[in-house]
Amino acid sequence: MTDVLFIIGKRGSFMSTKHLTILHANDLHGQLAFSVEDDCVLRGGISLTSGYVKRTREQEDAVFFGICGDVLQEDILGSDFKGTNTVSVINYVQPDALSLGNHELDYGLAHLLTFKSCINAPTICANIIVEHLDQPLFTPSMVYETGGIRMLLIGVIPKAFLNKIMSDEFCRTMLAYKDTYDAIREETAKHAGERIDLVVLMSHYGIEGDRILAEQLPEDVRLDLILGGHSHIDMDEAEVIGRVITAQSSYGTTHIGRFDLEVDTEKGGIASWKWERVPLTEETSEFDYGVDDLADRIVFATKKETSNSKLASFAKPYTHKSRLLETELGDIIADAFFDLYHPDMVILQSGSLRREEVGEELMEKDLKELYPFDDRFVLVELTGREIRDGFDYLFSLKPDGSVMNGTFQYSRGFKLVADATDCWNKGCRVEELSLNGKPFEDDKTYMIGVTLNCANSFFRYFAITPDESRRKIASFSTYSDLARWFLKQDAPVAVQEPGRFIFNNFNG
Question: How many CB atoms lie within 10 A of CB 356?
Answer without folding.
Answer: 12
